[in-house]
Design a protein that fits this description.
- The protein is built from one helix and two strands; from the N terminus they run E-E-H.
- By secondary structure, the protein is an alpha+beta fold.
- It has a two-stranded antiparallel sheet.
- A hairpin with a 2-residue loop joins strand 1 and strand 2.
- The longest helix is centred in the C-terminal third of the chain and has 16 residues.
- It is flat.
C-alpha cells in the first residue's frame, strides 16, 4: 500500500487505531454472524482476463480472489 495516499493520524471506523506501517492487502473477519473477506488489490478490468496474462502476477491475483471467496463461502478454511 502506498502510505503517501493515507491521511496521517487518521483512525478507521469505530476508532480502530489503524495498522501503523503494516497495511494488509487482504483480510478476513467474522462479522454479525457471518464471514467477511476483503482485499484492497485490483480494480482494473485486465485483472479478470480469462488467461491471466494481463499483467505480471495476474494468475496469483486471481487465485487470491478465488480462495478468498471460497473461504467466505465456507468451502475452504476461513481466517487462518
Amino acid at each position: 500500500m502506498d502510505e503517501r495516499t493515507l491521511e496521517q493520524g487518521a483512525t478507521g471506523n469505530m476508532n480502530h487505531p489503524g495498522h501503523g506501517s503494516f497495511h494488509p492487502v487482504a483480510g478476513c473477519q467474522y462479522y454479525d454472524g457471518g464471514r467477511a473477506w476483503l482485499t484492497t488489490l485490483g480494480h482494473d478490468a485486465e485483472a479478470f482476463t480469462d488467461d491471466g496474462s494481463a499483467f505480471a502476477g495476474a494468475k496469483e491475483f486471481q487465485s487470491l480472489l478465488l480462495n478468498g471467496i471460497e473461504s467466505a463461502m465456507g468451502e475452504k478454511p476461513f481466517c487462518r
